[in-house]
Write a structure and sequence with these properties.
- There is one protein chain.
- By secondary structure, the chain is an alpha/beta fold.
- Among the domains are: 3-166, P-loop containing nucleotide triphosphate hydrolases (Rossmann fold), CATH 3.40.50; 178-273, Helix Hairpins; 547-600.
- The protein is built from 30 helices and 9 strands.
- It has helices at 16-24, 68-80, 94-107, 118-124, 130-137, 152-166, 178-195, 204-212, 216-247, 252-268, 284-292, 297-338, 343-360, 363-379, 381-395, 403-411, 417-422, 430-439, 449-459, 464-488, 510-542, 550-570, 576-600, 602-614, 621-632, 636-644, 656-664, 670-682, 687-696, 699-727; strands at 3-10, 28-32, 39-47, 50-56, 84-90, 111-116, 127-128, 140-143, 272-273.
- A 7-stranded mixed beta sheet has the order 2-3-4-1-5-6-8, sandwiched between helices. Strands 7-9 form a two-stranded antiparallel sheet.
- The protein is elongated.
């Protein structure tokens, strides 16, 4: 009985995660790698009497640490020293996929090659001699079809057998890098071995290769270990780089890549046999791409697909949303009936149940959205969307892959910025990731939609659909413009070349889609549900305390007392009109008391204090209170605005009474509505999103986003209000 750690490596879209899911099923744990935001998945299982920890490494094309994914994958191999690694290879693109395998072999890690997607290889007419590949590579080779769980068990068994055979011994592969680099590598290797420079973790020749490749991570670690030797190795690398540039017009890292591919080509020329094909034969994926990525048709089809996702999400998601709303409504009614009137009941019903329920009510929408996006990802279409939009996004300093965070955040109204920010993990460039994190929350998320619908129905009833479309397009435009400004100023840097594999189209598997959907939905619900609880209690407290002085409460009671006596004196035989008029008087007193009570609270004091400045954008004290609540969660803007207008709690689905109140308020004009739309679109993300931003970048950047976006929102709102006031 033993304990073994086995890593699963592979290129993006090779079926690596599908293999991991097939092996581990529900026995998974998802977290982040220490110090970085790249997702870490581990699974535990028993194989006979042995305990295995399976680690799903980030998808990467190489082990040269240019990206977080590459650095994480390499550091795991070097620092954790797994007993074996499974490299899942797209067998239909063997030459390109083996590049990562060769780098793992150079490191010396015991390796098993999983030739995945063998069904597609056979369909194409190609043949792969896996026994020959095993003989030439020195690795164990297993053919698999991971999406159908075929061969995955045998793959794991081979990895365990190799781990037991090697017993932690690494056997690095030595490739010839030609007459220019080989002597230099020999010189470096002798120097490294003589000084035992980093050789406690990695082979000496591998260290030399990394210095020739100018691998910053290895060089930094070398300086810490022995700066004198590190400087010597750097000088050797600089010298040979000048030589190869003059004689071959190529840098050492380019030569290394060429020789690796040459080694791979020499391996597979006797391994892969191709059918005699007609010269005009085009694969099914290529035929589909001629339509789906067409210059004009492609973007239209993409918009259609996104629209369908939006429609299905809201149409189908309304059913479970109704169940959740009923559940939280029942909980609220039960608590109201069970508890006596007072602060405790108010806290539980208004602070906890309504607050948490308002956020968790979006879980069905998130789930259905992720279900369809996961299906698109697994089908290979998301890569095409990024490909089509890269040309547009590049103009604004972003990468084509940024389209996914935009869409998830509410590019088509109804998304959520929390998973949208989390989706930036797919971006390779840190600068492009920061810019995307900053602007993704500008999208029209589901929490903002009730605010926009309320304002459109109140002030633009005849053109509401057009205004909603302009709001959506305006969010995209502002996100791209702000991203361009950021990429031209504080986060300058060259655009990342768009290198993305366009995988063949595949039919997604139900199991894979469900696993991906569950992981993402649970992460959203867990974060939103826990953080919102604290925010809801805070908002409740701010709008409850301090309460009115007893003498003011007594004054209102005194005003109601004679009217109540009149109602009781009239009894049931009184005129309905007279009774209704008396009840209206009591309602007016209640509303006046409610307004004074909320002005007296901390939230009311904040709203009133801000009014001298906020009036520049047409925002009165009531609007200020609602927007202050919106810092916590945009979902509460409508209900908080209703409370501030002394109407009690307002259901976000039924905004007509609030709309009428806004129109009737002489201080809240059409210009105010326009300014409020712009401000709500752009100002600080909700607190849950800020937490997600901090986790994906840093608290400094999240704070900068809150301050910067709010400042921009206020400046544009003031401008819009002043201009609209002059013309409307």
């Amino acid at each position: 009985m033993g304990q073994y750690t086995i890593g699963i490596a592979g290129n993006p879209n090779c079926g690596k995660t599908t293999t991991f899911n097939a092996l581990t099923g529900a026995r998974q744990h998802v977290a982040n790698w220490p110090g970085v935001t790249v997702e870490k998945k581990t699974g535990t299982m028993k194989l006979g009497t042995d305990s295995l920890e399976i680690v799903d490494l980030p998808g990467t094309y190489s082990l040269t640490a240019y990206t977080q994914e590459e650095l994480v994958a390499r550091n795991f191999l070097v620092e954790e020293r797994p007993e074996a690694v499974i490299d899942v290879v797209n067998a239909d693109a063997l030459e390109r996929n083996l590049y990562l395998a060769v780098q793992i072999m150079e490191l010396g890690v015991p390796l098993v090659l999983g030739l995945n997607m063998m069904d597609e290889v056979r369909t194409s007419g190609k043949k792969i001699d896996s026994k020959k590949l095993a003989e030439l590579s020195g690795c164990r080779v297993v053919e698999t079809i991971a999406r159908d769980s075929k061969g995955t068990d045998a793959l794991l068994e081979e990895a365990l057998a190799l781990a037991k055979e090697k017993k932690g011994l690494w056997s690095p592969l030595n490739i010839s890098y030609g007459p220019d680099l080989n002597p230099v590598l020999d010189e470096m290797e002798k120097l490294i071995e003589a000084e035992q420079f980093l050789t406690d973790k990695v082979p000496a020749r591998w260290v030399g290769i990394k210095y020739l490749e100018k691998d910053k991570d290895v060089i930094d670690k070398g300086h810490l270990a022995n700066s004198k030797i590190s400087i010597q190795l750097e000088e050797i690398a600089v010298k040979i780089a000048k030589h190869t540039q003059m004689t071959l017009k190529a840098s050492p890292d380019a030569l290394i890549a060429d020789y690796r591919y040459g080694f791979i080509a020499g391996m597979i020329k006797d391994v892969v046999s191709y059918p005699v094909l007609d010269a005009d034969r085009i694969s099914r994926s290529d035929k589909m791409d001629k339509v789906l990525t067409h210059t004009f048709l492609g973007p239209l089809i993409m918009l259609g697909i996104i629209y369908v996702i939006y429609q299905i999400t809201f149409t189908v998601g309304e059913i479970p949303m109704g169940w959740l709303e009923s559940l939280f409504g029942w909980l609220g009614d039960t608590a109201t009936n069970a508890l006596p009137d007072g602060l405790l009941r108010s806290l539980i019903v208004s602070g906890i149940i309504d607050g948490v329920g308002g956020v968790l009510g979006f879980v069905p929408l998130i789930m259905f959205m992720f279900l369809m996006i996961s299906a698109l990802e697994d089908s290979g279409y998301i890569a095409r969307m990024a490909y089509m939009l890269d040309r547009v996004f590049k103009i604004f300093g972003l990468h084509g892959t940024s389209v996914l965070p935009f869409i998830v955040s509410g590019g088509i109204a109804g998304g959520c910025a929390v998973p949208g920010v989390m989706a930036t993990r797919t971006l390779r460039s840190p600068n492009e990731k920061l810019a995307t994190i900053f602007v993704a929350p500008y999208m029209t998320c589901g929490a903002k939609v009730p605010v926009f619908l309320m304002l459109c129905s109140a002030f633009f009833p005849e053109n509401a659909p057009t205004i909603m479309l302009l709001i959506t397009l305006g969010a995209w435009a502002m996100a791209l413009i702000v991203a361009r400004v950021l990429r031209s100023t504080i986060i300058k840097g060259a655009a990342t070349p768009f290198v993305m594999e366009l995988p063949p189209y595949r039919m997604p598997t139900l199991r894979g889609v469900l696993i991906h959907t569950w992981e993402r939905t649970w992460e959203y619900a867990k974060k939103a549900g826990t953080i919102i609880l604290g925010i809801s209690i805070l908002i409740w407290a701010m709008m409850t305390f301090p309460q009115l002085p007893e003498e003011r409460v007594a004054s209102y009671e005194a005003q109601r007392a004679p009217i109540t006596e009149q109602i009781e004196a009239l009894g049931e035989g009184g005129s309905e009109e007279v009774l209704a008029a008396l009840e209206d008087k009591i309602a007016d007193i209640d509303n006046t008391e409610s307004e004074e009570a909320i002005r007296n609270t901390l939230a009311g004091s904040i709203g009133t204090a801000m009014e001298p400045v906020s009036l520049l954008a047409g925002f009165n004290w009531r609007t200020n209170i609602a927007l202050t609540g919106g810092f916590a969660a945009k979902e509460v803007i409508v209900s908080t605005l209703g409370t501030a207008y002394s109407m009690g709690e307002v259901d976000t689905e039924d905004t007509d009474p609030l709309s009428e109140k806004l129109v009737a308020d002489p201080m809240f004009t059409t210009a105010s509505a326009i300014a409020l739309i712009i401000f709500t679109m752009l100002y600080a993300p909700c607190f849950v999103t800020v937490v997600a931003m901090a986790r994906e970048s840093s608290w400094t950047w999240a704070a900068y986003s809150v301050v910067g976006s709010t400042g921009l929102a206020f400046v544009l709102s003031v401008a819009a209000y002043q201009i609209a006031s002059a013309f409307i």
